[in-house]
């Protein structure tokens, strides 16, 4: 599954985000017949955005689609999706969420499963390296809430 075009696109997006000095998380939305509908990366730093996480960027890039376009679709993301992006996947009835890694952060996977979504965690080393390097080099960008980020690193909490 690491070789699926949607996942490859998501990793490319994450690297692009890193190259831009942003949060290195990428995503791609793929239709049930394998077409990439949209792709994007986290734009929090680049646009000062509170909502353009990687998955939201991919949804934005997909444009406004008829409900049928999301049926059977897969959201590929390099990191476990936060509650907002989990909610967006549920709202648009995306069937499957393929996650690069959930070692650096665990998001709404339980909720996705409770909502009947298929969740696949690839445990991909490249994704892990992108995130762990970023968190070490730019903790102030990842841990935006003014609390002790060592606690957050230990507990995988609160990346916004
Ligand atoms: Zn998110």
Task: Describe the protein's architecture and organization.
41% of the residues are buried. The longest helix is centred in the first third of the chain and has 15 residues, at 5-19. This protein has helices spanning 5-19, 44-47, 54-62, 67-70, 83-91, 109-114, 125-137, 139-142, 149-155, and strands at residues 26-30, 36-41, 74-79, 96-101, 118-121. Helix 1 packs parallel to helix 7. It is 44% helix and 17% strand. Strands 2-1-3-4-5 form a five-stranded mixed beta sheet. The protein is an alpha/beta fold and 160 residues long. Strand 1 and strand 2 form a beta hairpin. The protein is globular. It binds zinc ion. Residues 53, 55, 81-82, 84-85 line the site of zinc ion (ZN). Keywords: Cytoplasm, Hydrolase, Metal-binding, Nucleus, Zinc. Catalyzes the hydrolytic deamination of cytosine to uracil or 5-methylcytosine to thymine. Is involved in the pyrimidine salvage pathway, which allows the cell to utilize cytosine for pyrimidine nucleotide synthesis. One of its GO terms (cellular component) is cytoplasm. Its EC number is 3.5.4.1.
What is the makeup of the main sheet? 5 strands, mixed
The amount of beta strand, in percent, is 15-25%
Overall form: globular
Stretches with pLDDT under 50, minimum 5 residues? none
Query: How is the largest sheet built, in terms of strand order?
Result: 2-1-3-4-5
Number of DSSP-assigned strands: 5
Number of H- or I-type helical stretches: 9
Q: Could you give the order of the helices and strands?
A: HEEHHHEHEHEHHH
Q: What is the helix fraction of residues, given as a range?
A: 40-55%
Name the ligand types.
zinc ion
Look at the structure and give the mean pLDDT. Answer: 92
What is the CA-CA span between the terminal residues? 27 Å
Look at the helices and sheets and give the structural class: alpha/beta
- Rg measurement, Å: 14 Å
